[in-house]
TrEMBL record:
<feature type="domain" description="NADPH-dependent reductive aminase-like C-terminal">
    <location>
        <begin position="160"/>
        <end position="284"/>
    </location>
</feature>
<comment type="similarity">
    <text>Belongs to the HIBADH-related family.</text>
</comment>
<dbReference type="Pfam" id="PF21761">
    <property type="entry name" value="RedAm-like_C"/>
</dbReference>
<dbReference type="InterPro" id="IPR051265">
    <property type="entry name" value="HIBADH-related_NP60_sf"/>
</dbReference>
<dbReference type="Pfam" id="PF03446">
    <property type="entry name" value="NAD_binding_2"/>
</dbReference>
<dbReference type="InterPro" id="IPR006115">
    <property type="entry name" value="6PGDH_NADP-bd"/>
</dbReference>
<dbReference type="InterPro" id="IPR013328">
    <property type="entry name" value="6PGD_dom2"/>
</dbReference>
<keyword id="KW-0560">Oxidoreductase</keyword>
<dbReference type="InterPro" id="IPR036291">
    <property type="entry name" value="NAD(P)-bd_dom_sf"/>
</dbReference>
<protein>
    <submittedName>
        <fullName>NAD(P)-binding domain-containing protein</fullName>
    </submittedName>
</protein>
<feature type="domain" description="6-phosphogluconate dehydrogenase NADP-binding">
    <location>
        <begin position="4"/>
        <end position="156"/>
    </location>
</feature>
<dbReference type="InterPro" id="IPR015815">
    <property type="entry name" value="HIBADH-related"/>
</dbReference>
<dbReference type="InterPro" id="IPR048666">
    <property type="entry name" value="RedAm-like_C"/>
</dbReference>
Length: 287
């Protein structure tokens, strides 16, 4: 490819991203704060830059994969003049507010900005299953789409630079609560002599199948009517049997109690006959 690209930050993730670019034939210049990390990439055909400034000057497209928001500013603030007129794709993990702040900073400096949230671990980069979420400049996303697609499935959410990060964190929220649910189930059966591995063998297909319910819930939520026929009611979902069985096993009930409280607030407000999806109202309006 004739596209020249520079990668700032050769940690575990930056190295994986740069490696995919080199492999695909992009003229890739790499920089890392501590020396030595570019050696493997140079052996594959990348160029190493001695300074971040040299790396920025080498390419119209600059990828930043540093530790955090502060490190992006530390590296790029002194280089705003060099970056002017270039494109910055920042895949460093930042909060939505930090991503918006960086987009404003870039706009001030005359830099086209695209923010990315990586939903993968380094060894997944360039493999099926890797997903990267983007928001910010649509022009940048579309212009460099072939390059971005080398890393994984690229999804663009819009001009608000904070939106990719918000999606990233929202997806992680879902993941952590699901993981806690798995742990709760494994803890429940453990006193009965069931190993976590035996439980996982049942939980994997079960929870995978249950993800099929998301779009049904979403249709009810987006439709704004929780009384639609065919839903499991809040009344029916009281979870008291589940809590009693957990207590009988001598384990913590915290994980399930959290869900039960969300249900109960809607029942208390008189919505017990309505669908389970209504617990989102308990979350949207903290009690
Ligand atoms: P590493 O800890 O492996 O690498 C961190 C990188 O940031 C190194 O290149 C380090 O340089 C550099 N760095 C840190 N502070 C500074 C600074 N003040 N100035 C200049 N460079 C600095 O992290 P990863 O590569 O794993 O992660 C990079 C980003 O990717 C993070 O934002 C992370 O959240 C995100 N990410 C990582 C995932 C993963 O599984 N690893 C998954 C999804 C996102 P030095 O070598 O000199 O220390």
């Amino acid at each position: 490819s004739s596209v020249q690209v520079s990668v700032l930050g050769l940690g575990a993730m930056g190295s994986a991203l740069a490696g995919a670019l080199v492999k695909a034939g992009y003229a890739t210049t790499c920089w890392n704060r501590s020396p030595g990390k570019a050696d493997g990439l140079v052996a594959q055909g990348a160029k190493a830059a001695d300074t971040a400034g040299d790396a920025v000057r080498a390419s119209r497209l600059v990828i930043a994969c540093l530790l955090d928001h502060a490190s992006v500013h530390e590296v790029l603030d002194p280089l705003s003049d060099e970056l002017a007129g270039r494109t910055l794709v920042n895949v460093t993990t930042t909060s939505p507010a930090q991503s918006r702040e960086l987009a404003d900073w870039a706009a001030q400096a005359g830099v086209a900005y695209l923010d990315g949230g990586i939903m993968a671990v380094p060894h997944m980069i360039g493999q099926p299953g890797a997903s990267i979420l983007y928001s910010g400049s649509a022009d940048v996303f579309h212009q460099y789409r072939p390059l971005l697609d080398l890393w994984g499935t690229s999804t663009y959410f819009g001009e608000d630079a904070g939106l990719a990060s918000l999606y990233d964190l929202a997806l992680l929220a879902g993941m952590y609560v699901m993981f806690a649910g798995f742990m709760h189930g494994a803890a429940m059966v453990a006193p009965a002599g069931v190993t976590a591995g035996e439980f996982a063998a049942e939980a994997t297909p079960w929870l995978t199948a249950m993800t099929g319910a998301f779009q049904g819930f979403a249709a009810v939520i987006d439709g704004g009517d929780y009384t639609v026929e065919g839903q499991q009611s809040l009344q029916f979902s009281s979870l008291s049997d589940l809590l009693a069985a957990s207590s009988d096993q001598g384990i913590s009930t915290e994980v399930v109690t959290m869900v039960q409280r969300l249900i109960q607030r809607q029942i208390d407000a008189g919505h017990g006959e309505e669908g389970f999806a209504r617990i989102i109202e308990s979350i949207k309006q903290p009690g």
